[in-house]
Design goal:
Helix 3 crosses helix 9, helix 5 runs parallel beside helix 6 and helix 6 crosses helix 7. Helices cover 34% and strands 21% of the residues. It has a five-stranded antiparallel beta sheet with strand order 3-2-1-5-4. The chain is an alpha/beta fold. It is built from nine helices and ten strands.
């Protein structure tokens, strides 16, 4: 079977597992046969080919968009009201199971705050990637974190097709790197969260420079900078808590309000 799903999970490429759950009569494949369907329509394996398979692929793509499993029966015989011209004579019940990817965090920088943020993010189940040219710092990151040292932050940001469940956090070692990374990030579309660390003075300075380059106020208004929720964070660990809480609230479209009963 081509295009196995493990590398798809590692690269966060959405896919669905399609399983023939039951059959009656004459059908092209037996119960238990599987196929992987990717968001772009590519497949791994087959459940019989032809019009039947193309319909299942389309249904799998829709299930991935809705992030909901689907159990559906397809008649493969003539004369059925919902038949599509198949003449095998039987029918196939298919279970389509979208593989829900966890949210992803991409960190520019591998300093103290980035280490704390990446550690907490990985513990929360996020797919975490850190970009920095200092390989000695990348080596100390948690084993679950993907490390990138051969691309500049700007090149990395420009190379991706960003998704709404992905967060980009800019916490590099100086404001020049942060500024250039943010400038490129604001030229992209699709990311669910863009944040930058720094004092209010630094943020204003970076924003002013980007305004001089022609970056619009609308784009700048979408940046979470200084990043994080206001919890009085000071240490890298506290900054990580503040940052991850804000990211999850934004990506999951939650209010980040208190859950206590007294607020009802």
């Amino acid at each position: 079977m081509s295009d196995e799903p493990v590398p798809a999970k590692e690269t966060r490429k959405p896919f669905a597992v399609v399983t023939i759950a039951a059959t009656t009569g004459s059908v092209p494949r037996a119960a238990g046969s599987k196929m992987f369907v990717y968001a772009d329509g590519r497949i791994g394996g087959t459940i019989g080919g032809g019009k039947f398979e193309s319909l299942v692929i389309a249904d799998a793509q829709e299930a991935m968009r809705e992030k909901k499993p689907l159990l559906k029966t397809y008649p493969l015989r003539e004369g059925e009201p919902d038949s599509f011209g198949a003449i095998c004579g039987g029918e196939v019940t298919v279970f389509i199971e979208p593989q829900i990817m966890s949210e992803a965090l991409y960190l520019i920088g591998a300093g103290h705050c980035a280490h704390a943020i990446s550690k907490l993010a990985a513990e929360c189940g996020l797919f975490v990637t850190v970009v920095d040219d200092r390989e000695n710092l990348l080596a100390d990151l948690p084993s679950a974190v993907t490390r990138i040292s051969d691309l500049s932050p700007a090149d990395f940001i420009a190379s991706r097709q960003w998704q709404s469940d992905e967060a980009l956090v800019i916490v590099s070692r100086n404001h020049e790197i942060d500024r250039e990374a943010l400038g490129v990030a604001l030229e992209q579309t699709g990311a669910g969260y863009i944040g930058m660390i720094g004092s209010r003075r630094k943020v204003r300075r970076v924003f002013d420079h980007l305004r001089e380059r022609g970056v619009s106020e609308e784009k700048l208004s979408k940046v979470y900078a200084p990043l994080g929720l206001d919890i009085g964070a000071d240490s890298p660990a506290e900054i990580a808590v503040s940052t991850i809480a804000e990211i999850l609230a934004v990506l999951r479209q939650r209010t980040a309000t208190h859950l206590r009963l007294a607020d009802e």
